[in-house]
Write a structure and sequence with these properties.
single chain; 251 residues; mainly alpha; 0% strand; globular; CobS; membrane; EC 2.7.8.26; cobalamin 5'-phosphate synthase activity
């Protein structure tokens, strides 16, 4: 892929995955959909910004709250919509009810519980990292973010869309062999954490969540949609943080 095309794909990725105003256009969006490695690459700057509170020397609760605020400031909350919709779908009975729950604009109990679990998981994971050495804390935060984006790339490359929409916009441009790109792009995040197994665990959470949600979506929804992409990102980040903390504390 030419450098100009790669740059356009990265701009499209930044525009889609963050709130940073990069002045992307339709051509950048098209390049991004054909360049799954952009998911993993954009995860690095997001993770770096989110990790800044861990270098502040402040109390653990303040660091954890700062981490959450940094994520909201850089990424926003669009992917929480996917978590909420899937929470309602999981709480529904049967595939037909699950599909109906996804289309329902009302917020159900399942959505509230799912959001609470994700936000609580992020804060608790950050609290667990607040006492770690700076290199370890920053490394795990970045690895979890890159892993979450690798999870989204995994959905794009491995899944089939349930219908035309945001999900199909990615799946129709990707195929399994293209997953090699985002996997290689995520490798430094996995290997530069001390201890290394903490970074590997944090990054691996993304594909693990992706495979699980793809299987659920195939059986329940007939394929993935935009909500599955968003939920993969949020759930993989939480799981990545906690797996990274576990691997660090057991080292």
């Amino acid at each position: 892929m030419a450098l100009r095309s790669i740059a356009g794909g990265l701009r499209g990725g930044v525009a889609f995955l963050t709130r940073v105003p990069v002045g992307s256009n339709e051509a950048d969006w098209d390049r991004f959909r054909s360049f799954p490695a952009a998911f993993s690459l954009v995860g690095y700057p997001i993770g770096a910004v989110a990790a800044l509170p861990f270098l502040s020397g402040l109390s653990a609760p303040t660091v954890a709250f700062g981490y959450l605020l940094a994520l909201v400031a850089v990424v926003g909350i669009p992917h929480f919509d996917g978590v909420a919709d899937l929470g309602d779908a999981v709480a529904a009975h049967g595939a037909g009810d699950a599909r109906a729950a996804l289309k329902d604009t009302a917020t159900g109990v399942g959505a509230i519980v799912a959001i609470a679990v994700v936000v609580g998981g992020l804060v608790l994971g950050a609290l667990g990292l607040a006492g770690a050495p700076p290199r370890t804390a920053v490394g795990i935060v970045v690895a979890a973010e890159v892993g979450a984006k690798l999870g989204m790339a995994s959905v794009a490359c491995l899944a089939s869309a349930a219908h035309e929409g945001l999900g199909s916009a990615f799946t129709e441009r990707a195929e399994p062999v293209l997953l090699l790109g985002p996997a290689l792009a995520a490798l430094p995040a996995a290997l530069l954490v001390g201890p290394v197994r903490a970074g590997i665990a944090a990054v691996a959470a993304g594909p693990l969540v992706a495979v699980g949600l793809i299987r659920w979506a195939d059986g329940t929804l007939g394929g993935v949609n935009g909500d599955v992409f968003g939920a993969t990102n949020e759930l993989a980040r939480v799981l990545g943080l906690h797996l990274g903390v576990i691997a660090w504390t057991l080292s």
